[in-house]
Each structure stands twice: as C-alpha cells, then as structure tokens.
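Hi R.,

Here's the chain you asked about this morning:
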Amino acid sequence: MRLLLIHARRFYYKIREPAIKEPEEPGEARDSLELSNVLVVFTTVEKEDDASVAERAVEEISRVVSSTRPEAILVYPYAHLSSELAPPSTAVEVIRKLAEGLKKTGLRVERAPFGWYKEFSLECYGHPLSELSKTVRKQETAPARRVLEKKFYIITPDGRVFDPSSFDYSNYPDLKILVDKEVFGVELPGGENRVNDYCRKFGFEWEPMSDHGHMRYGPHAVAIMDSVIRYSWQVVRSLGIPVFRVMGSNMFNLKERPVLEHALLFGDRLYEVEVDEDRYVMRYAACHQQFAMLRDWVISYKDLPFGMFEVADSYRLEQRGELNLCFRLRKFYMPDLHILTKDLREAIEISKIVQEKIIEEASKLGRRYVALYNVSQDFFENNIEDIKEFAKRENYPILVSVIPSGIYYWVLNVEYHIIDNIGKPREIATFQIDIGNGKRFNITYTTPEGDKKHPVIIHTAIIGGVERYIYMVLDTAAQVEKQGKTPSIPTWMAPIQARIIPVSKEYLDYAIRVAQEISARGFRVDVDDRDESLGKKIRDAGREWIPYIIVVGEREVKSNTLSVRIRVTNETLVMTLEEFLERIESETRGYPRVEPTLPMLVSRRPLASYQL
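And the predicted structure, written out as tokens:
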C-alpha cells in the first residue's frame, strides 16, 4: 500500500464521472465534501495487499496523527502512487478496513468514494510534517496455511460405510493405491513411465522455446488431438439433453468481482498476466466464459436442463517438478461441459446420467476408474442415500472425502482416477455439483411463478482433459506391453489408420488407387513409395503403430485382393477392398473421421515425421 499524507488547512472534493466500469456508489463515502484541519490520506492499494496491510497502515497513520493533531482524517482513493494496482473489489475492501481502523483515533473519519474522477482543491499547512509519503507492506512471515480438516470413508456398492483403516482391500488393489495416497499420504514408488516414450513417439513434446509445461504437437499428435476433440463433442451430444457449443476468451480481468472470487476459490495455481496496468487470469477451465455468456441469456424453467460446451485451452501454473508429459501440463485442452439445472435434486439426477457416461467411456478403453467423492459436510449428512446410490452405480467401492461446508462453490466433486503403468493414481474425468456460481455470476432463470432463481450447475469433463484422455489411451497400451503383447491405440484415433506398401515400383499405381478409395471413405491412409526394402517398410509402419498394413504385389493385383496385416492380433488376412472397408467401418463406427495431417506419399515427408 502506498500512502501520501497531506495535513491540509482546507480540502474539498466533488465526484465528476466514473473512472471504472462499476464505481462505488456514494453513500457512507460522500459524493462531495469539504473539511478543514484534515489529514488527507491519499491511498493506493497494491495487488498483494490485504486486510493485514490496512491494519499496519492504521498504525503508521496514527503516529502521524499524534504529531500533527488534525481534527479529521479523510481516506482518499488515489491510483497514481503505484503501477501495481489491486483489483477494484480488493481495493475497496482494504480501503474500508483502513477507514474503519482509523476511527480508533477518536477523530472524525471520512472516506471518498472509489472509482470516480474527482475535482479537488487543497491548502497545505506547509509545516515539516505536513507532507509525508509511506509504503506499507505485508509482514515478511506469511501466516500458516489453513489445514483443511477431512474425514474419509469407504462406501461399497451395497451401501455399507467403512473406516479406510479397517477396510479389506484384498479384492480392490487399485482402491488401496488411491487410499494410500489420499488418506495416509504414502509416497508411491513410481518408476520409468512408458507413456512418456509413447508421447514422444507420436510427436507430443515439450516446447523448449516456451515456459516449461507447454507442449507442441507434431502431425501425428495433431491427428490424435483432433480425433479426441471431435469425439468429446459427440459424447456430450449423446447425453440426451440440449447442449450449446460455444467459443470464447481465455483471459479474464481480476477487476471483475465474480472472476476474482472464483479464482480465489480455485487456489494457488493461477496463471496471471499484466496488461495496461490490469491483472488478468488465464482461464483454468471454461467456467468464466460460459458463465459470462449465460448471465446474459434469458432462461426459463422450461429450458432446463441444458448444457454449454467448449473445448477450452486452459492454463494452470503447475509446479515445475510435478509436470508430466501428456498428463500434467501448464497449458492443456479441456472439453468442458456445464449443465444448468433447476435445483439440487435435479442436479443429482442429471449427475447420474453424467456418471454413467463417464464410466462407459473408460470401459470402451478397457479401463475401470477408481473414484474419489469429495463432498461437503452438509451434503454428506443430508444426501447420504444419494452418495450410496452413486456408489452402487459405480459397482466398485468409492473413497469419500468429507470437508467442512461453505469452503468451496461445490457440494460434490468427483475425481475419476486410473492406476497407471507405474502404479500411481491419475485423475482423468470429473464432475461437480456447483451451488455457488449461479449467484456469483448472476445467472438466473424464471420460475413458473415468475420469480428469478439461480440454477445449480454441473461441471464435467466426461472423457477428461484431451491430453489426459490420450494419457489413459497410451497408458492402456503400456499395460498391454507389460503383458508381453503388442501395444496399440484404437483405430479411430490412430494418426495413420492404414498404410499401403507396394512390393515394388511396378505396383505403385495400384497401391495409390487403393489408397484413394480408402481415403474417399474418410480414413487416414498413406502409401509408402520409398525406395526401401519391403521388410524395412513393414518395420517402419510397425514403429508408427499403424493398425492395418496392406501389402500389394503381383498376387494381389491379379486376384484383386489385399494382404492385410492387423496390428492388434498380429495376423495377416487376405481380403477384398470392400471386405477391408467393411471391417474398418465397423471398427470405427460411432467415432469421428478426421482429415489426414500428412501427405499421402511417405516419400514426400521429412524423415522425422515418419521414422519414429
């Protein structure tokens, strides 16, 4: 906090026009005032200031008061003493605390309204103590961080409740790993993570010219990313409720009170940017943009429930040592869905649909989630039967963490974890029931009686963050490899779904015609036309995990067939082109078809883009 103290014979001010979007309404802070023998405290609240700074400023100003003996004190907001300004909502709160604290001096204390251009006139006494400047900082030693009291329980599908320390985990080794980490703070051993190798194989890399934790995506990675992004939209549309897809900004001004309040609840992983003396937060999910849009919509109870969806580029200032390629990043893509519901009961019922879809999407990859249910104390007490119903629908015991009520905007926050190839829990998907942000962002709907009511909002990433979903896919391949089998990824998201390899140049035209027919059906196919041996071409295709390697030579041309090597089963089948198309159509049905990210001819690519 910066202070300029002027002991004035006379001081007069009058507000003229707003200086910010939402200035403080004159009230206890008057729109005009004239005082005599007054200590004018020109005050600039800086971005790190809080109530403790106001208390220390009171001590400093009180010492000046005892020396100058004014009849009144005027706290005058003044933004020109620093370029490191606090958001307006914070500044007003600190200035109010300052004025309130100065009343202990026994003098008349007035306060000019915040956020206005004002005219003023001043007559300074001119004695040695009549002009002073001071800087007030927070104490060097930060207060101890609040320890969040949690109670943990295991709830089984049949509705029984256990203490985690007495539960029998013999049939639930994955749950034991999650409980060890979350409840008992066990440091899990870890090891060499094969997913990191797979990520690099497909062109998911750190960008060395950026802040650590930001990735770049090569052509193979882009095909995978695009496939998953489009699939996330398909999944959302399959929920059976109306969903609107939007796009928006990734940067929000901390001067906006709802943005600041939501950011403070999120925690200490905020990416902040300063522009033109304002502080902005880079969004950590799509919440800010979607809520800013929804508060402008005219919504009726007849419209609910409905969803709003965006694949949001999101930013979190993760600790450098915690960063993990393809899993824990500072910039990532979140397929964020918010569902507006009338009340808590409807939110719980819609959450069951979301829960079912989350479990279904994991099972398509052959995975089972281990779920952590974070709940507020009041939700645990009032909705224990609903929590048991959720556990029943999981068909697997859940870990429940109960926290004090009123701390977060949600009453239920579910984290879905896999246990990965090195034995660590990794959160992938999530859903939350939010009872606070409807009011915070002034989102309303009209009830049948014509009243305005704030909706209860479900937050969910059904398949998880895009990169985290890909992490789960690659981790599944790592688990398969540990079993001595051939690792693979689903055909619908493979960067190259089929490669045609002519035995010699003589059969190149035939290979290209086959590739063109496959491409016309919407599949990513290429032709290895390089002047290399057949064995090398097949090995290179294997390194790229191409699901189908199609070899064509004299026999295939004469019989109008294809020799198809299938990666998943390691078998080679002879089939017609139509039979092959029927097979790949069936395998990818219900999944998006994304355009190729590479030229069709392998010879037209730089070495690094195909020799992985």
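The longest strand covers residues 2-18.

Let me know if you need anything else.
M.
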